[in-house]
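Q: Got a minute? One more chain.
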Amino acid sequence: MARAMHARTTEDAAVNSMHICIDGHNLAMPQGTGVATYARNLANTLRTMGNSVSVLFGAPISSNTSALLKEVSFYDYLANGSKPLPFLPDLKRYLSDAFRAPRGMTAYPIPDTAYVEKRVFQRRLPQQANILNADNLYVMARQYFSRHGRFMEIRLPPEIQVMHWTYPLPIKAAGIPNYYTIHDLIPLKLPYTNVYSRGSYYRLIRECIKASTRICTVSECSKADIELFYPEAKGKVVNTYQCSDMAAAEDNHARTFALAGRNPYGLVPGGYFLYFGAIEPKKNVGRLIEAYLQSGIETPLLIAGKKAWQADQELATYEALAKVDPQIKERIRLLGYVPEHLLAELLSSAKAVLFPSLYEGFGLPVLEAMQQGVPTLTSGEGALREVAANAAICVDPFSIESISEGIRAIDHSEATRHQLSLAGKVQASLFGASHYQSRLESLYL
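A: Always. Here it is, folded:
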């Protein structure tokens, strides 16, 4: 390897610490994603282990911009995203990017001064991380890969020893080991549940495997899928699972609301079921709604999550039935996107979490529910069974009847809920921070 990396134990971590860079591709999204949560937890865990951490963003800010305006422009971008350009400037940027891409790019630091108020981003960004940027990096890399089938090259500051891409991206850091996290192969495993171009996605994963020192994944199920679709990956894939910091960050505040007998939506603690996640086909929200209505229970259902691809199709039955019976919208409440601190409050006082997703690479909502001791219903498919084990009610996600029976079982039996709460906390402890640190130690060569 161009730059030496050291295998470390907890005792010598401070001596042999590394400087690791992760991408900020998903961290830049204002409402976050599951991958953004993964990236933030990864960065914070690496720092806890004694490593230095940098985060590489792709804001459309020229390296020739003054230092002060780089910082101002970056945090404006982080809050508001890229601003659309009129046709001619947009065409000029496209042609400029096409010319620059084959030569690669050089990352530059975003200054950290007292000029810009940054506390508003405390929940979104990793703690004490250095911020790097490369002008329009991720847009340019996707365009370059689409045209030429090749990865763009990024040159990082010399102190960085490892690049860990938290998502399959068509970019490779020059001169250092590259690690790529592949969370799942759902675009290939369940091609009817997402909007990806199948051929392009297949080639992207193949090239990530070629470019990588190792492939990181988050469950044994995903590891098996990767090695099934890409036999050349065998011996290169490491499962680290993942962890969640939701309980650690929000526990006291959330339980204050629960003990006070209220939450931000005016609901009584223990008086509602909760689904949280995107509304899209793979999350199985349509069947969940039908199963809930079929169950005949009176406990309301809250659905917290933003609408994603084909959300209207998932909600079609709900909207049609609501026109006939307006009370359905009282029993099933669509909350839209809920900020993380409010979501933690909703979660901590839910009667149970319902998450019968068709397939997941890991299933973070299940872990977060079990951490809080909230009884959980989930799918017996994919990694969800692996994460939940016997600490949740596992159902057939393709069967409305199976989901409905599971909902009734949780709703009708306090003893069942109590048993699931205790078992969930024990199971969640297997995915705690210390276990995650140990698995990350085994990842980096």
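A: Confidence is low (pLDDT under 50) at residues 1-15, 248-254.
Q: Perfect, thanks.
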